[in-house]
Amino acid sequence: MKIPLPSMILPFLLLPLIIARKALKQPHIVLIVADDLGYNDVPWHNPTIISPHLQDLAKAGVILEQNYVQTKCSPSRAALMTGRYPFHIGRQHESLPPQMPTGLSTKYRILPERLQEVGYATHAVGKWHLGFCDWDYTPTRRGFGTFFGFYTHGADYYERLASNSEGGFKGYDLRSNESVTHEGEGEYSAQLFSRKAVEVIESHEGKQPMFLYLAFQSIHKPIQVPDQYSRRYQPYGKLTKDSKRKGMITALDEAVKNVTTALKQSKMYRDTVIIFLSDNGGADKDANWPLRGRKNSVWEGGTRSVAFVSYPRMPKRYRGRSTDDLFHIVDWYPTILALAGYSKQLTDMDGYDQWLSLAAGWPGPRTELVYNINTALRFTAAIRAGKWKLIWGYPEGLRSNVPRKETRAAFAQTLREARSSDLLYLFNLETDPSETVNLAHENKQVMKILMKKIRRIMKSGEVVKPDTPFLRERSNPKYYGGYVSPGWCKAK
Torsion angle, CA of 399/403/408/410, rounded to 10 degrees? Predict the structure, then answer.
């Protein structure tokens, strides 16, 4: 009796799936997010960068060469925590100035809440930046069992002072769970946050799986780092900004080393999936070379993020490689939940579970992604389908402090206005990853197909208006003893 060919080959096709799933058994998960780390800020893209520990982790795992994020901090973090494009949840514009009375809406069940459902101990260390004006926006009310870090966009690396030029906002910003703490006073933040992450690892007991979200401040401005790291790039003379900035990367590398060392000493390393990525492109013009643009733009330099996954129990044949499969930050939500054994059906997801692509070499499920759709202040829409990318409107973003009445007169506000202003950019990213040749007038057929996709999204009724309420004076830390504090808005 002849066995049908599909029946013969099916076990071999399923073998990578069986191996990949068998290796899981609820692993520990350490999700590390760097801040403003550019495409050219890692040694596998730039050999002048001294970052041996990140290099080793990346080379031992899977490097994601087509990993996309949002253009700025808060939108990326919102996408990471919800698995939704920011334009579906109102977080597509701006990075939540500390005086803005809003945050990531509490109607969305975010990643740590889901992980707690399947038995994970959840911890957050470092930068939050998803709202703090109401306690219900803060980490310990959103599924994290513990939190050590700061609420706002950034602060002094030694003194924990957060400030914003608008409205004279300035205050101390460091919390242990929900209490103000002065622990580590004068300690460089990368060292402080890695030390606290190590404490989480060392205090973890039993067989309960651990989820550690480690969101470093590095290498976001201000440019600050102990001289010993910068001197590795510039042994003599007055330190340049570039040497200091690169020193921040090397300090970040050492902080990651401290975490992996603790995992090994605690005999957790082999059972830990380490995910590393940056929240957006670098802020400096050379940070993303050879990609075009920088942070706060939908150019590749603003949205194509360095990333890798390292997991010792991943089948050996699938480790030590790079992948060009498309990956978007919204994909981490379902991917991490699949790793954790979350079996409930996820609805209204923009992300894909990509674990089999990463751990078993399967073709990636994603063929398209939306960079952003933003109607605040001026119009921007950008989409990628296969090798083609269309930007419709303005590639660079505007800050919320630009008066609306000024933008109405100066900039295109709609699809139609952007098209009539010839704000159309089409690129073949396969042959032109640096976006140097605009093919909008040469390949009108492809352009029309991508424009149709954007129109369909815009007409779907699923694009949520950007949530950007007016800044509130009551946010000022001077009303709370000089501390950045919740209590001046109502969560929604």
Answer: -70
Token readout for 211 is 């989820």
**Cα–Cα distance measured from residue 460 to residue 246, given in angstroms and rounded to the nearest whole number:** 44
Burial of 483 (0-12, 13-18, 19+ CB in 10 A): middle
The 10s digit of each residue's pLDDT in 103-144 is 999 999 999 999 999 999 999 999 999 999 999 999 999 999
73 an active-site residue? Answer: yes
Compute, in degrees rounded to 10, the torsion defined by CA atoms 94, 99, 100, 106.
110
Residue showing tokens 């498309």: 326
User: How far from chain centre, in Å, is Cα 81?
Assistant: 9
Three-class SS of 312-378? CCCCHHHCCEEECCCEEHHHHHHHHHHHCCCCCCCCCCCCCCCHHHHHHCCCCCCCEEEEEEECCCC
Dist. CA 413–CA 332, nearest whole Å: 32
129, 153, 220, 328: which is the annotated catalytic residue?
Answer: 129
* 133 given a catalytic annotation: no
Q: Could you give the CA distance from residue 317 to residue 328 in angstroms, rounded to a whole number?
A: 24
pLDDT given at position 167 = 63
Is 256 buried (19+), middle (13-18) or exposed (0-12) by CB count in 10 A? buried
